Protein: receptor protein serine/threonine kinase
Organism: Erpetoichthys calabaricus
Amino acid sequence: MLSNGKEEVLKSCVSSYEMKGHVFCHSSSNVSKRECCFTDFCNNVTLHLPRGLPLLVQRTISRTIVLHEIIGKGRFGEVWRGKWQGEDVAVKIFSSRDEMSWFREAEIYQTIMLRHENILGFIAADNKDNGSWTQLWLVSEYHEHGSLFDYLNQYSVSVEAMITLAVSIASGLAHLHMEIIGTQGKPAIAHRDIKSKNILVKKNGTCVIADLGLAVKHDSVGNTIDIPSNQRVGTKRYMAPEILDDSINMNNFESFKRADIYSLGLVYWELAQRCSIRGVHNEYQLPYSDLVPSDPSIEDMRVVVCDQKLRPNISNQWQSCEALRVMGKIMRECWYANAAARLTALRIKKTISQLSVTKDVRLQNGALHV
Ligand SMILES: Nc1ncnc2c1ncn2[C@@H]1O[C@H](COP(=O)(O)OP(=O)(O)OP(=O)(O)O)[C@@H](O)[C@H]1O
Ligand SMILES: [Mg+2]
């Protein structure tokens, strides 16, 4: 099209949503994808998308990162600690075989208004061709404690630390689940792979939710979900009963949020197990580790969770500590077979926050009486 006498071509690999933000470039001749493709073409044009950093800046960042050591391996490749301008960063490297996963995760992280203190801070996505193969990079903030799974394996936690960790996870999930209306709004997002390995622990003792590659977004105007979501995805051990027995109504977005809440209850159980009262705590255990094999099948899980209706054990000892008693009650209300009866992330956040408020008040009163 002609604009001010200059030819401008609509960049056709930008999603229709972004097009409303008037994104143009000057040479999109061979690009036919509707979604932004992060190809050299895209990266060569400085696009000021309404979210995230401009693509050219993302590329410049990732090209100046020095990789130091591998810190983990997951389903979709390796995670490295790297340095960028003297700062630690985490680099998740996907192989080109997993391009869809890389693309999806980058896309979700760049959802407008997603940034939150309890969601992993995304920095850049880039594709690097080293001559023989293409490496797909996802650069994010680095958290030296690693995942909550790593952390709980290594340390037990005090009641206060448990509350701080639990509130922060609920805050992150509540933000993800919440729809914010307006031009600077955000769609509701369901994670679909909540587990202790996908939550990272920050230096200040709070958490961030990571691994958004399986997430789904809700378009409340058209009441549609942004990707076909008919497969059973996620981690079998953490799957909600309605996913295991295939009774989930995938046309209702609430279903995905409720399934996240079930998984959150399991993460809380892992956390509460490691909570130390008067020096007493349990060893770290994965949920259901006493009932299913180490790499359980969907059928193994279905028998335990749906047929036998078993859930992780809520210890009687937890009744002697107010915070653990409340955590136990929350877990039960996350695990209802009837998904509609489960708590919401916002409710959980408020209930656990009140625990810390009550405790603070008590401390203050205590201090006043000293
Ligand atoms: N931003 C980060 N900062 C610090 N450590 C990280 C970061 N991202 C990931 N890790 C570490 O790398 C490990 C591997 O992460 P990855 O998400 O690839 O796999 P996973 O979560 O362990 O398994 P899965 O593939 O089932 O999600 C994590 O368990 C964590 O210990
Ligand atoms: Mg992961």
